[in-house]
């Protein structure tokens, strides 16, 4: 009987360990991302997303991205923002440019929770390419190049997902290497 109890405890311990491992999110910008926190609460901890967080605050989108969602966010890194022409970010975060900034940021958001499996299914259903409608109302196109998920924006710009499936309590984030433009 004692061995049976010990065996049951061992199975429970293994199941718990497996569950925890399966739910572990990748580190982003040197910070742990927690599936129990919302998009904003996780993003503020990433040293790679300080520009994005500042832009979200300047656009007044913090409360929206803290809401229930769910949202799929293609999150450009600081390095992605650095690729923009000099002075672009500084100009966009000015109060008089809030509408333009909001348009650009909401172009990085798709309603619903589209993890890599859901995007892959959409790509397969679209014969190798998926068309995604953004919260801004524009279109993004997604496809695979080898093992990399590539996005194309309305202006023909290309971005690659560098970290996929960062689960949040109100959606999922995919880190990207280039800012998308509506």
TrEMBL record:
PANTHER family in UniProt: FI19380P1, PERIOSTIN-RELATED
Enumerate the InterPro entries for this protein. Answer: Adhesion/Biosynth-related, FAS1_dom_sf, FAS1_domain
GO CC terms: extracellular space
- Gene3D superfamilies in the record: FAS1 domain
- Domain of life per record: Bacteria
Source species: Pedobacter rhizosphaerae
Instruction: Read off the Pfam families from this record.
Output: Fasciclin (PF02469)
Q: What is this protein called?
A: Uncaracterized surface protein containing fasciclin (FAS1) repeats
């Amino acid at each position: 009987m004692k061995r049976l109890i010990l065996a049951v405890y061992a199975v429970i311990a293994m199941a718990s360990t497996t569950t925890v491992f399966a739910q572990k999110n990748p580190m982003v910008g040197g910070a742990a991302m927690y599936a129990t926190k919302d998009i904003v609460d996780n993003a503020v901890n990433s040293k790679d997303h300080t520009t994005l967080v500042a832009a979200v605050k300047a656009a007044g989108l913090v409360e929206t991205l803290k809401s229930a969602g769910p949202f799929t966010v293609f999150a450009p890194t600081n390095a992605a923002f650095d690729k923009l022409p000099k002075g672009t970010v500084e100009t966009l975060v000015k109060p008089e440019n809030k509408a333009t900034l909001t348009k650009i940021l909401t172009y990085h958001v798709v309603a619903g929770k589209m993890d890599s499996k859901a995007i892959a299914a959409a790509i397969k259903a679209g014969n190798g390419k998926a068309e995604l409608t953004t919260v801004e109302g524009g279109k993004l196109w997604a496809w695979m190049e080898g093992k990399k998920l590539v996005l194309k924006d309305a202006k023909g710009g290309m971005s690659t997902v560098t970290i996929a499936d960062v689960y949040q309590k109100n959606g999922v984030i995919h880190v990207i290497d280039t800012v998308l433009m509506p």
